[in-house]
Amino acid sequence: MLTLKSIHTYYGSIHALKGVSLHVRPGETVALIGANGAGKSTLVSTICGLVKLHKGTVEFQGRNIAGFSPEDIVREGIALVPEGRQIFSTLTVEANLQMGGFIHRHNSRQMAQDMKRVYERFPILRQRSQQLAGTLSGGEQQMLAISRALMARPKLLIMDEPSMGLAPLVIKEIFKIIRELREEGRTILLIEQNARAALQISDRGYVLETGKMVLQGEGAMLLEHREVKRAYLGKGAKQIWEA
Amino acid sequence: MRTTDRWIFTVVFLLIAVFPWLVGRISGISHYIEVMIFAGIFSLVCLGLSLLMGYAGQISLAQAAFFGIGAYTSGILTARFDWNPWLAMPVGAVLAAAVAWIVGVPALRLRGHYLAMATLGFGVIVHIVFSEEVEWTGGPSGMVDIPGLAIAGWRISSEVQWYYLIWGIVFLALLFSFHILHSRVGRALRAIHEEEIAAEAMGVPTARYKVQIFVFGAVLAAIAGSFYTHYVTFLSPSSFNLMWSIRFVLMVMVGGMQSLWGALLGTVLLTFVGNEWLQVFADFEVLVYGAILLVVALFLPQGLISVLRRGPGGARSSVSRLGGEG
Question: Contacts of residue A135 in chain B, CB cutoff 8 Å?
């Protein structure tokens, strides 16, 4: 569904991505793990058209979408749950959701339907629909960010560090949501620092290091891989959200 | 419009409506009507700027230039070519829109404060043109022989008539601005102001919306300029220099950026400060403006309107940040 072929991207004057290739098949959940500064977020920005691609191709459903505007990429069917949530805190929860469905803004019937579905999934958001989004807790904000992305009716959902800055119990909740989305048959590209948890719920995984893909394989296989264990998983006890 | 805004609208509308009558009763301040006419004209300039600053998160330092483009277009077409003022006015507005579009499109494609820089340079250029194109504009010595305004053959002559005309237009512009704010475009603008990248990732054409609001502000400023021309019937380049652009930004900031009411309040207040109460400072006026800006930025980042809204204590609390005007 999504295929990146040896893409190069510069972030300012830094050569952030040096020939990265990756693919996501329909219905798959793919994890992309890597340390800080490995280029994960640059990769996301490149796919979403927020950063200019220097070289290589980004193919989505057989079309080369490299050089498309962010708006057109959303229309093609890629939605992003941005890093750090980035909800619109002075807008109400409902207005945030409406913004999520921005590209479908001329279809109010569909918008109402989607919103109803979101509220069924997250009843807490219905309760808070008229509240300003900035007054939500961290976990609720992440739910809102995910719902907002779903409002665009994406074919591919990209989640950039959904567990970042959240309390352990909340992280557990967020991973549960991701697992549910996966079970619904959605196609997900999950970017995480929480390597173990991410690989556990993914079909396949990629490991990015200083702008290069160093490893790829099935989630379970990567979990057992010596290098991954050494660099990303540590030897300590399991974290609470992995239970 | 929200219910609170509707209430404020009614109250402000009534206040503005009875103002001439009230001022007429009190000796010594009857000329306040004149000051309020200027305040109304400047309010038109500041409404668009308020949308741009408070909602699109961009600063324009060329409002005086657009104001001037409207003013000189009206002045030149009516005084030199005998056009009807009502025909000259839209020409000025269209010209300002076209120029704003040309300046705005490249500057607003970039994230950050490139618009401020672009408009700073542009404003200076426009001012130089006004001063140097003596044949057209009269240059530094000014332009005279500009006709007044008439509606259906009926001349607008008294101050009170001008007052109601100008403030009627301000209220129309205000209604229109509220309409923009509470529409889908307004919601998108607020989203852009808050998390531009997230807004872009939702598919909001951020650059296009910012350009549209910038052009809207320029058009309002140009219309204000036309009215100014026919009210004062004299034009001099010094009314359209950079200092004026800064003053407009200041008016919006003092009143409160994220509120159209704040922009109105700041404009009226600073017009009185500038035209009436600060005359004694003469050339040191600039220092006083600097001091006002400093105090507002330090103690009332949400502007004076935040004090009115929930008392001085509430102005600095974090709740007021979240409860931005919508």
Answer: 322
Q: What is the ipTM of this complex?
A: 0.78
Instruction: Give B142-188 pLDDT, tens digit per residue.
Output: 999 899 998 888 898 899 999 999 999 999 999 999 999 888 888 88
Chain A residue numbers touching B322 (CB-CB < 8 A): 89-90, 132, 134-135
Burial of residue B243 (number of CB atoms within 10 Å: 0-12, 13-18, 19+):
middle
Higher model confidence: residue B88 or residue B112?
A: B88
Q: Give the model's confidence band at B100: pLDDT under 50 very low, under 70 low, under 90 confident, else very high.
A: very high
Can you give the pTM of this predicted structure?
0.81
**3-state SS class at A15:** strand
For every residue of B137-190, DSSP letters joined together read: H-GGG-B------EETTEE--SHHHHHHHHHHHHHHHHHHHHHHHTSHHHHHHH
Task: For residue B277, count CB atoms less than 10 angstroms from its CB and return exposed for 0-12, middle for 13-18, buried for 19 or more.
Answer: exposed
DSSP state of B53: I
- A242 occurs within a structural domain: no
Check if the beta carbon of residue A146 is closer than 8 Å to that of residue A81: yes
End-to-end CA distance of chain A: 31
Beta bridge partners of A209: A212
* CA pair distance A226, A110, nearest whole angstrom: 48
**What would the pLDDT profile of B177-232 be if each residue is shown by its tens digit?**
999 988 888 888 888 888 888 898 898 988 889 999 999 999 999 999 999 999 99
Residues of A in contact with B184 (CB under 8 A): 98, 105
- Give strand pairing partners of A31: A190, A205
B161-195 burial string, b = 16+ CB within 10 Å, else e? ebbbbbbebbbebbeebbebbeeebbbbbbbbbbb
Query: How many domains, chain A?
Result: 1
How close B204 comes to chain A (CA, Å)?
A: 6
Contact (CB, 8 A) for B290 and B243 = no
Domain of A36 in residue numbering reads as: 2-235
Angstrom distance (rounded) from CA B304 to CA B256: 6
- In-domain check, residue A103: yes
H or E, element range at A58: strand A53-60
Interchain CB distance below 8 Å, A98 and B188: no
Q: What is the pLDDT of residues B52-95, one digit of tens each?
A: 998 888 899 999 999 999 999 999 999 999 999 999 999 999 99
The residue of chain A with its CA nearest to that of B192 is: A88
In a domain, A240, yes or no: no
Neighbouring residues of B320: CB distance < 8 A, sequence distance ≥ 6: B302, B306, B309, B310, B314
Is the pLDDT reported for residue A141 higher than 50?
yes
| Strand A204-209 relative to strand A29-33, pairing | parallel
Residue A59: which CATH number?
3.40.50.300
In a domain, A243, yes or no: no
Whether pLDDT at B28 is above 90 = no
